[in-house]
Write a structure and sequence with these properties.
By secondary structure, the protein is of the alpha+beta class. It has helices at residues 54-165, 168-179, 203-210, 224-231; strands spanning 28-30, 35-37, 51-53, 214-217, 220-223, 233-250, 252-255, 260-265, 268-273, 278-283, 288-293, 300-304, 308-313, 316-322, 329-332, 338-342, 345-349, 355-358, 372-377, 384-388, 401-405, 411-415, 436-441, 447-451, 456-460, 466-472, 476-482, 487-493, 497-507.
Length: 508
């Protein structure tokens, strides 16, 4: 029986001993098998083969080696050097091209802002003139009414005097005056009116006003309008791409850029692929509160019960800085800052722990965020959304909600779970109070909220407008995460569970 190819031993480069006969030196070359052999091979494996001494074939090989050296040095290495130089130029040109495109886009945006400001100023000026004209008409009308009132009062007094002590002539004259009045009731002026109806869907017109972007690559060419249609369009119905039991309990989930995900439960981190196969496990000394994947370095950050903020580097959690209070949640931003949620405030830090800004209220003012539970940053606007459990002992009112703020932590809007009445409660929930257990932004700046008690996932626009219910399940919504293809990773079950569903709610 022939030995399988995968089991045939191979000589390691530089090895001087036989691979078949341990310790035997290699002195010969078998021309049939084209390999080096020892004296013992001549009477066994290579018996009957034509062999020659190794020293005889070396001179035959040297010209080929010299030709290789000469050809490589004169041609291949020179060409590779040119390619390397070309890539340096390509890198510079690539940076320059997109710098110019970005500058053009910003200039056009600034121009549109100026034109909008000018249009607004012109309209406001028109409003002001109309207001002044109406003010003059109203004031004139008021003066005429006051004059008429004065004349009527005087006429009443004259009539009273005529009745009390006037002559027959005076009574007659008074009678004639009241039936033939000199002045009539002033006519109410017709005022100038104006209406303003905001454009509820300005997106298409704004895209046209901004200009046309054409991109090419990977065998296709798309304009910005094409991209908006082809890369992000809500599907008529959400598709469950994958559904399976994962081998670990999950309370938080962070999809990575390569179709995998990090999960957290108690003191354990687990790296899994979309089929649930475990790639890596990392254990911390204490329980972990929350996890976040850096959008720039793609490393995982965690905050734990010992007030420690750590980064996962080469499979080990490395301490970066500590907080003075319990870090309930964490979010690493595109600008490489670390936002940490703590009781009654969230704060932004540098990666070495220097505070940049905070929402902490001064004095006895009500906190903007009372009981933060999850934080996410918008990849488009860099706004920040926080799920706030609003616990009364933290200064809240007990009504859970999502707070959205800008990069300086100024409030933009609050979403309290309002949805159209067409979305009826499920038999399981019967319309429970809004419970935003988790929140994440998708690639175009829409908010995805996991509504725990109502077993559903909501889609909200970046300005707070309700868009749709992405999915309604038969169990609690534990955690949500989004990957670079806008596939939604959701965990359903109890407070922590293993059931993971991958949901596709938009076209990509």
């Amino acid at each position: 029986m022939a030995t399988p190819i995968s089991q045939i031993p191979l000589r390691i480069k530089g090895q001087t001993t036989c691979i078949h006969h341990k310790g035997r030196k290699l002195y010969f070359y078998c021309e049939k098998c084209q390999e080096l052999v020892c004296p013992k091979c001549l009477s066994s494996i290579h018996q009957g083969h034509f062999v020659c001494e190794l020293s005889e074939i070396s001179p035959q090989k040297e010209p080929d080696i010299k030709n290789f050296i000469d050809r490589t040095e004169k041609n291949d290495l020179v060409q590779i050097g040119k390619y390397i130089t070309t890539t340096d130029t390509l890198l510079k040109d690539n940076t320059s091209t997109f710098d110019k495109l970005s500058q053009q886009l910003k200039l056009q945006t600034d121009k549109l802002k100026q034109e909008l400001d000018m249009l607004t100023a012109q309209t406001l000026s028109c409003y002001h003139k109309m207001e002044e004209d109406n003010t003059k008409l109203i004031n004139k009308y008021k003066q005429d009414l006051e004059m008429y009132e004065k004349q009527l009062k005087q006429q009443v007094q004259e009539c009273k005097a005529a009745l009390q002590r006037g002559s027959h002539i005076q009574i007659y004259d008074a009678f004639c005056e009241i039936h033939s009045p000199t002045y009539g009731l002033p006519v109410k002026p017709v005022l100038v009116t104006a209406n303003f109806t905001p454009n509820e869907n300005p997106q298409d017109r704004l895209k046209k006003a901004l200009g046309k972007v054409t991109t090419s690559g990977q065998g296709q060419t798309l304009t910005d309008q094409d991209r908006s249609v082809s890369t992000y369009k809500l599907l008529p119905q959400t598709e469950v791409v994958e559904e399976r039991e994962f081998p670990c309990y999950i309370r938080s989930i962070c999809p990575t850029t390569d179709g995998q995900a990090w999960t957290k439960y108690l003191d354990k981190l687990t790296h899994l692929d979309r089929k649930g196969k475990v790639i890596q496990k990392v254990k911390n000394n204490v329980c972990i509160y929350d996890i976040s994947l850096s959008p720039t370095t793609h490393t995982l950050w965690v905050c734990d019960y010992e007030y420690s903020i750590m980064e996962l580097v080469s499979g080990r959690l490395t301490h970066r800085f500590s907080t003075n209070e319990e870090p309930k949640c964490i979010c690493v931003t595109a600008s490489n800052h670390v936002i940490v949620g703590m009781t009654k405030h969230i704060s932004k830090f540098t990666t070495d722990g220097k505070m940049v800004c905070t929402t902490m209220a001064k004095g006895t003012g009500k906190p903007l965020v009372c009981s933060p539970h999850r934080i996410t940053e918008c990849p488009v606007t860099h706004n920040v959304a926080v799920t706030d459990f609003s616990i009364e002992s933290d200064g809240g009112d007990g009504n859970k909600h999502v707070v959205v703020m800008d990069t300086d932590f100024k409030e933009l809007f609050v979403y309290r779970g309002d949805i159209p009445s067409i979305y009826n409660p499920t038999p399981q929930t019967e319309g429970e109070p809004f419970y935003p257990r988790d929140v994440v932004y998708d690639s175009v700046g829409n908010l995805i909220i996991g509504d725990y008690d109502n077993y559903r996932v909501l889609l909200i626009s970046g300005v707070g407008e309700f868009l749709r219910v992405i999915h309604t399940d038969t169990d609690y919504t534990v955690a949500v995460g989004i990957d670079r293809e806008d596939v939604l990773w959701t965990v359903f079950g109890t407070w922590c569970d293993k059931t993971v569903k991958l949901l596709q709610y938009s076209s990509v």
